[in-house]
TrEMBL record:
Its EC number is 2.1.2.11. This is 3-methyl-2-oxobutanoate hydroxymethyltransferase. Belongs to the PanB family. NCBIfam families: panB, PRK00311.1. It is an enzyme of class 2 (transferase). Pathway: Cofactor biosynthesis; (R)-pantothenate biosynthesis; (R)-pantoate from 3-methyl-2-oxobutanoate: step 1/2. The gene is panB. It catalyses: (6R)-5,10-methylene-5,6,7,8-tetrahydrofolate + 3-methyl-2-oxobutanoate + H2O = 2-dehydropantoate + (6S)-5,6,7,8-tetrahydrofolate. InterPro entries: Pantoate_hydroxy_MeTrfase (IPR003700), Pyrv/PenolPyrv_kinase-like_dom (IPR015813), Pyrv_kinase-like_dom_sf (IPR040442).
């Protein structure tokens, strides 16, 4: 059953309205035209062209290797498949940290060359100049706090963040700052549910969780994980809604068997 689409086009204003009326926001990653078309038609509110493409599309161990050009390629493909969803694109590692002018150039390239609706940056106080510069050009910015995969070599682990009081207070301060700067929403990744609940209650902008419990304004998952295409990734927060790894493997094995046994194509499948 398809989701009833209350609005024709999702905007930052619509996302804020959804939070105000208590309607949860659905967000999924997308990296190509075909998948974006399916997710958009199903009624997904936000599509994230995530730098997780570095992992699930390119096979890298981390998100760090993916380039701005590659992100623009994926974003352009997704935008062409969308009629309703809000499309936000990750600024990749090295395209915004420490240089607000570079950050602005990166964001403008994404907006102009892909047609996306906004960008997402990882971090708080340390990237405030980049966020301010991008916002000054009228580009919507989504923040990202908690586990920030672009900083994996700094943390050295993908474990839950902000469990200690000092780090939790830092996250709260950063969340308040991102809202004050003008971010339209924030993703909280892999933090205690109680802390995420506190952030969502205190801030008036939407808070999207991934591994942050149920008390936020929306949820995001990587589509390859949700569909069961990836098998090794099994965090507690992940719910698999399909097991396409087995479905695809079985289909391809049957195809190979039919080709080798001359069962495909049949005379009915020939011209």
């Amino acid at each position: 059953m398809s989701v009833q689409k209350a609005v024709k086009i999702v905007t930052t204003h619509q996302l804020h309205t959804m939070k105000e009326r208590g309607e949860k926001i659905s967000m999924l990653t997308a990296y190509d035209f075909s998948m974006a078309t399916l997710l958009d038609a199903a009624g997904t509110d936000v599509l994230l062209v995530g730098d997780s493409a570095s992992n699930v599309m390119a096979g890298h161990e981390t998100t760090l290797p993916i380039t701005l050009d590659q992100m623009i390629y994926h974003a352009s493909s997704v935008v062409r498949g969308v009629k309703r969803a809000f499309v936000v694109v990750d600024l990749p590692f090295g395209s915004y940290q420490g240089n607000s002018s570079e950050a602005l150039r990166s964001a403008i390239r994404i907006m102009k060359e892909s047609g996306a609706h906004g960008v997402k940056l990882e971090g708080g106080f340390e990237i405030k100049d980049s966020i301010t510069r991008i916002l000054s050009a009228g580009v919507p910015v989504m923040g990202h706090l908690g586990l920030t995969p672009q900083s994996i070599y700094k943390f050295g682990t993908y474990s839950v963040r902000a469990k200690e009081e000092a780090e939790a207070e830092k996250l709260l301060e950063d969340a308040r700052l991102l809202q004050e700067l003008g971010c339209f929403a924030i993703v909280l990744e892999k933090i205690p549910s109680s802390l995420a609940k506190r952030v969502a209650a205190e801030l008036h902008i939407p808070i999207i969780g991934i591994g942050a419990g149920p008390h936020v304004d929306g949820q995001v998952l990587v589509i390859h994980d949700l569909l069961g295409i990836t098998k090794e990734f099994k965090p507690r927060f992940l719910r698999r809604y399909a097991e396409l790894h087995e479905t695809i493997t079985n289909a391809v094995e049957n195809y190979i068997q039919d080709v080798k046994s001359l069962n495909f194509p049949t005379e009915e499948e020939a011209y």
